[in-house]
Amino acid sequence: MVVFQKPKSLTDAELHYCPGCTHGIIHRLVAEAIDTLGVEGKTIGVAPVGCAVMAYNYFACDMVEAAHGRAPAVATGLKRSLPENVIFTYQGDGDLASIGMAETVHAATRNENITVIFVNNAIYGMTGGQMAPTSLPGQVTQTSPYGRDVTVAGYPIRVCEMLAKLDGPEFIARVAVNNVKNVKAAGKTILKAFQNQIEGKGFSLVEVVSSCPTNWGMTPVKALEWVENNMIPYYPLGVYKDRSAEVTEQ
Amino acid sequence: MSEKVLMKGNEAIAEAAIRAGCRHYFGYPITPQTELAAYMSKRMPKIGGVFLQAESEIAAINMVYGVAGTGKRVMTSSSSPGVSLKQEGISYIAGSDLPALIVNVQRGGPGLGGIQPSQSDYFQATKGGGHGDYHLIVLTPASVQEMADLTGLAFDLADKYRMPAMLLADGTTGQMMEPVALPEEAPVLIDKPWAVTGTGMARRHNIINSLYLQPDELEKMNFARFERYAEVEKNEVRYESFLTEDADIVIVAFGIAARVSKNAVVAARKEGIKAGLIRPITVWPFPKQALSDLANTAKGFISVELSMGQMIEDVRLSIHDRKPVRLCNRAGGMIPSPDEVLAAIRKMQEEV
Amino acid sequence: MTTEILIAGFGGQGVLFAGKFLAYKGLIEDRQVSWLPSYGPEMRGGTANCSVILSDDPVGSPIVSKPMILMAMNLPSLDKYENDVLPGGMIFVDSTLISRKVTRTDVKVFYIPSTQLAKDIGAPTLANMVMTGKVIRECADISDQNLEAALGKVVSARHADLKEINLKALQTGMEYAD
Questions:
Q1: CATH class of B239-351
Q2: What's the half-sphere exposure (Cβ side, CA atoms, 13 Å) at A183?
Q3: Considering chain A, what is the average pLDDT of its residues?
Q4: Do B32 and C40 lie within an 8 Å CB cutoff?
Q5: CATH code assigned to C2-175
Q6: Does the domain formed by A23-242 have CATH 3.40.50.970?
Q7: Which residues of B, range 67-96, sit inside 8 Å of A by Cβ?
Q8: What ipTM score was computed for the predicted complex, to two decimals?
Q9: CA B69, CA B197: separation in Å to the nearest integer?
Q10: What is the pTM of this model?
Q11: CATH number of B5-235
């Protein structure tokens, strides 16, 4: 009996992510959603610039590599060209919430019928651990060596709370992948974000609070604890906007 | 060809693009090209096409990148400052070997510059305005008829060579109205097996990408791309030659500058000066050979430009500085008059 | 034969429209034509001008820097362009709005109170077409044919009822004897 197997819509390529990184889990959740819905053959993914830059090698569906922050614009082009296909972006915090904020907000306000997976680990991983738009106040990074000073660097951006204020988007939710219970809930939420697109409901974004043991300078276990004790209090989990249902907060 | 109608250059581009099978347009308002976007916003919804006013030129070019990846004909248009913003996306499109059309209705610069016609984005267009080794096919219309004709050609060449093409127009050609016979709507669309359309579970996944972390792999991609560019240089050079056969003085000018220069050449001939005009229609690839051949017989060249002198470098390279090359230019949105060009011709006639 | 016309006035005086009309008339008559507007912020209430070229040969530069015909719809336009007109050329002056006389002596000058004439026929916004009528009458290279056909091209179908009053304005200008 098979108790666990790799989703079909992931390739056999070996992931390049660091040990203890949660990108692998999130890739799997996305692939499981694609498998569950049986849409691999008509799915096109958009990879970001950041740690997930080579996601195009890992997903078995057609893939496009976007410039830094531009994934929602690229996905807009894809979806407008191929409205019957399933289009998703997979972006990190620097990509989505810093350099690509305009593209994010405007794709959301147009209710562009795409699915956005937003991985928030509060740091620039690929370039070696610089301050991200979501780095916590006081968080030490390579470019905030004395801790994020909000009087200089400003405050972290809570993307879900901000986007939920817009009239446009269909579905905005935040999940985490720091324990089994949260991973399971994240999988369901990601599935819903894809399901929404197939049903033509519109822009569905799932923020996944994630860890970066390497650049946080922690063991994987410690990093997951840090998610629980520091990240989640600042970035509460829950559904922030669900136009087709009542808004519920956890 | 249909009956001639009077149209603005900007509108002629838009209609010609539609007739070339383009059903996706993304743009952001900027003078003096806005009529193009306005025309698309009217027409596209009626023919099942997509017009989207993007949040920025950056977003617009990346939407173009997305559609180009799906293999469909797609375009954006802007004017100089907006085209600067698009350079990142253009580099990615070139680096991913995608066809697309970018229209630049040039205005004076640098910076916010002005809104009057200019040709000072020549370097940006022909030398690769974004990062990395790449080229665009750059076509330079000099009439409203060419605004239409070269739009169709640009889509065809972009598809054929899997590279972005640019229509390098200016405020004058964009704003002016002239009679134009629009092409029939009969685009020749080629198969694009590389496009992302969904695997249909029938093939391995396609990837649209410009990232190659292994330097040897990236080098290979660059060499392969430049082999294609060599083909373009061999096959796709276009220019108009006007009274050059016996010319002592050859003007080189494109777009609106060529229109002005033609008047000056005619006037010079009336004075007994043997002047002629080479009008590059493609500035990349540049008509190097035509100029080099003329350097055997001509006594001198004058580059007439609406810039501080950009194309003149290509003129000098083309003839290997075998003959003197002078600049006759205006900048900032000013256009040289035929008299100014004639004066430059007379001056050179005395010198050579 | 080539006729280069510069039409200049305030934004809103129908300078561009008059130029379009002449260009379309040329197109209908199978001539080579070009129409080039000034563009930009000056159009919003400031001065506007357009260059029209009618020719039996291909049009070179579409920019009219030395017009054969200047239609000056306001004083700033006359001040700005009077000296550019070719010797032997023609200047048409809206004498309702411009009180000064043309100082050049090597051009033919027509003073026509086109704004007043337009008001008199109940079409105060059509001074442009009144003056255009006068130009048609005086310029040997522009025939008095195809007026309705050309109006049909420049007056949108939505405003087809305006064709008649435009035609009347043209005729008023054509009949005006200064």
A1: alpha beta
A2: 14
A3: 96
A4: yes
A5: 3.40.920.10
A6: yes
A7: 67-70, 72, 74, 88-89, 92, 96
A8: 0.91
A9: 8
A10: 0.94
A11: 3.40.50.970
